[in-house]
Amino acid sequence: MARKQAIHVGLDLGTHKTSVLVAAMQDDGPHVIGLGTAPSQGLKRGVVVNIDSTVHGIQRAVREAEIMADCEIHSVVVSASGSHVRGFNSHGMVPIKGREVCPADIELVLDAAKAVALPMDRQVLHVVPQEYIIDDQDGIKQPQGMAGVRLEARVHVLTAATAAVQNVVKCCERSGLEVSQVVLAPLASAYAVLTEEERDLGVAMIDIGGGTTDLVVYQGGAVRHTAVLGLGGSHLTNDIAAGLRTPPQEAEKLKQRFGCALASSVGNDDMIEVPSVGGRGPRVLARQILAEIIEPRVEEILGLVSQEASRAGVENLLSSGVVLTGGTASLDGIVGLAERVFHLPVRIGAPSQAGGGLADIVSGPGYATGVGLLLGAHAPAQDLVAAAAAGAGSQGVLSKVKHRMGDWLREFF
Ligand SMILES: Nc1ncnc2c1ncn2[C@@H]1O[C@H](COP(=O)(O)OP(=O)(O)OP(=O)(O)O)[C@@H](O)[C@H]1O
Ligand SMILES: [Mg+2]
Q: In a 3-state reduction of DSSP, which class is residue 261?
């Protein structure tokens, strides 16, 4: 087992599943050559709550991916999530020292933009530039080389609870893996499923996973708002298990096989067999009953996302509509329900930019974050400069990550 080719590995530590994607980087993007998945048992609502179970899942998924890709995995880009993630817009300003803007000026202005007072237990994970302003000229995306005396940056800053991020890094290290970068899952998913036109016109990406629902709003080619809610597909499963008095594993199967988010679209004579608990025999029920359990919960989740967008004042930026992704986006009828909630066009976002033999499998919405982690190397250069700047503010366990992240970035730019 010793493939010499340069490979990149994305580790998506989800609440429902842990997935490891191995890619060979080619000119047209990542080619996925290995995939390993394992059920996640140590996470709740996107956050590690049991180190041993999480490490077990990571090791299982890594082993599977190594065998498939015929390589050894030493270093990963890992996702982090949870409702502790906060995003806010900020602004920085510096004088331009030479005659034109150089990379050091950009680094300084991004540092200035992220220099906000944070509670001791939180840290900056990403500083994503929205636009640069030189003197009074705004709307600049690439300031390098431009003349002026004053450089300003408008940015979106993403912060996370330090302990939650440290636990993610700890789980990787206990699994024998180096962490080259920690990327917030919402950003990774958005990289993977949104088109450039959508980002320019304005769009809301909603990743509904097992335990979290992520919102990222883009407009004018830049991130305007992010939020993570601690609700997801596992709540649907729990509702089905309680409502139909069936074991959770059976509720999960029923949801995936027969679930529908629009009860009105299910035929009256459509019947399903529902296993019972306590050794009782299975029952035959109308599929509509299952849909009537699912619909209000999905409506609640999407309604909360809509409220979050209104609260942040970004609901009017969504000219190109809503893109749903994450495993729960595979639920039948979810597009119709989301269109009813948002009064906007809705589509399912599949991460289609990955090539290679496994492209078909990883183009399912449940792999949006995993593919997004691989796309980091092909992300807009200004986002990566910002990621490097954000890394410089990390502390503790993450200070080690900072240096490796710098190497990872230099390798590609
Ligand atoms: N066909 C389907 N119909 C309905 N739900 C589905 C379907 N396929 C998967 N799901 C649900 O998607 C969820 C898993 O999605 P995903 O893999 O994106 O989650 P995750 O990334 O592990 O979790 P999170 O992002 O919340 O931490 C589960 O709740 C699962 O039941
Ligand atoms: Mg996820």
A: coil
Would you state the pLDDT for residue 338? 98
Q: Are 32 and 23 in contact (CB under 8 A)?
A: yes
Asked if 24 and 6 count as a contact pair (C-beta separation under 8 A), the reply is yes
Helices (H), 175-216: 185-193, 196-201
Domains in the chain with CATH codes:
87-158 (3.30.1490)
Residues with beta carbon inside 6 Å of ligand 1? 14-17, 40, 46, 81, 185, 209-212, 232-234, 237, 252, 255-256, 259, 326-328, 330-331, 366
Q: With a cut of 50, which residues of the chain have pLDDT below it?
A: 1, 377-378, 380-413
CA-nearest residue for atom 25, ligand 1, is: 209
Residues, CB-to-ion distance under 5 Å, ligand 2: 14, 209, 369
Angle at CA of residue 410, ends 359 and 407, nearest 5°: 90
Tokens of 204: 């809301």
pLDDT of residue 396: 39
The whole-angstrom separation of Cα 103 and Cα 382 is 11
